[in-house]
Design goal:
Layout (H helix, E strand, L loop, with lengths): L1 H23 L6 E9 L21 E2 L2 E5 L7 E6 L9 E4 L9 E4 L8 E8 L4 E11 L5 E10 L4 E11 L9 E11 L1 E7 L11 E11 L3 H22 L1
Antiparallel strand pairs: 1-3, 1-13, 2-3, 4-7, 5-6, 7-12, 8-11, 8-13, 9-10, 9-12
Helix pairs in contact: 1-2
Length: 245
Amino acid sequence: MSGCVLAEDLAVRRLLSVTFVALLGVSAPLAASVLTFDITPVPVPNDPIDQNYGDRITAAVMGGFSYGTTGGFTPNVVVSYGPTGPGPDDCVYFWDQNFGDLMNVVAQFSGATNYGILEVVLTADPGFFVSLASFDLAGWNRSDWTINSLQVFDDSTGGVMFSATDVPVEGDGVGPGHSAFAFGTGLWSDRLRIRIDASNLPGGNGLNIGIDNITFSQNVPEPSTALLLGGALCFLGGLRRTRRS
């Protein structure tokens, strides 16, 4: 019985998450930013990416960090890159060229404990939400690869918002110089996680998938939307109390 309750609770949470995304879609984004990984001075290839890159963007150039902008900024969103660990090879690294036609990308180091797994997490401040619009992937050394999977998670509910397996990634420069992934009006949550799984690539090639041009926006719900969300949360709370009685 407890397993059924847990499954039902997860289903309700996912339903609320879908409703939440649909409601937020009616409100125009307040700001948008693009992570281009343009840093001055240019990092040495294989150096870990600065974990502050992408945090609370309020200008196209902030110190040595440069960003693309599409109508605004994201001062209420922070970005993190992982997985990381205690070892010198447990890092997300910067590379400047030869990932298809992309310039300046980040990728997971080949010797990392979590071999071939690259994650980028977008976290909004309380009362704000982040929407992922698109990003680009490319293969190293102008090669095409097929990776295990590409997913986007809603970390608040544990739900999967996008998932694809056996994902082809361009890089050889013939035709598209990279693979572009776009999500229409955006994938919305207060915390989104992009997860790239290239652990199927043998011989250390799990480091050969770079991500670039991550485009995201921030938003707050309109008053009517907030009331609807509040009602949905009250419904979930009442459902829990009914189960316990």
